[in-house]
Amino acid sequence: xxxxxxxxxxxxxxxxxxxxxxxxxxxxxxxxxxxxxxxxxxxxxxxxxxxxxxxxxxxxxxxxxxxxxxxxxxxxxxxxxxxxxxxxxxxxxxxxxxxxxxxxxxxxxxxxxxxxxxxxxxxxxxxxxxxxxxxxxxxxxxxxxxxxxxxxxxxxxxxxxxxxxxxxxxxxxxxxxxxxxxxxxxxxxxxxxxxxxxxxxxx
Length: 203
Fold this sequence. Notes:
Layout: H1 2-34, H2 41-51, H3 56-69, H4 76-109, H5 127-136, H6 139-144, H7 147-166, H8 174-184
Helix pairs in contact: 1-2, 1-3, 3-4, 4-7, 5-7
C-alpha cells in the first residue's frame, strides 16, 4: 500500500513538472520570436532548473503578465518578481471576495440573540473567513462600525485572511500553534497580529 501511494505521488509530481516544463518551453519559443533572441539548449536548461517545481498555472499567469509588460528578454529574476506579484494579486483577490462573502452572510443570517449572533440553524461561515473576521474584531464590531471604522476593519480582515493563506498555522488556536511550532521548528506565533492571542480568535 505504501509503495503504491509513493508511486502515485511520484507520478503526480512528475506530471506537474512536465506541465511546468511545457509552459516554460512555450514561453521561451514565443519570447525568442518577440525579442529576437536565440534560444539555446543551455538557456532552456537554466530556466527548467529554476522553475521546474513551480505550479504550472501560476507560472503561466506570471509569464503572460511579463509578456504584456516587459520590453526586453526577461531573466529568471524578472520571472520570480512576476510570480511574487501574481501571488499577491491572487491573495488580495481572494481576501476581497471573502470580505464580500462575510458582508452577505451577516446581512442574511445576523440575529443579535442567536448563538454567536446568528440565526439558530444558520449554515456555518466558511472557516478561513470566520477566523479572519474574528481577528478583525468580530460580528458585533462589524455591525456597529462607522464607515471609517469598517474600512479599518476590512484592512485587518484582508491582512488576516492573506496571512492564513500564506501560513495556515496563523488561524490555529494558540496551544495548537505552539505544538505545531515545536514539531516543525517554526516560530508560527509571531504571525499573530499585535495584541491578539489564540484564545481571542476562538469562541
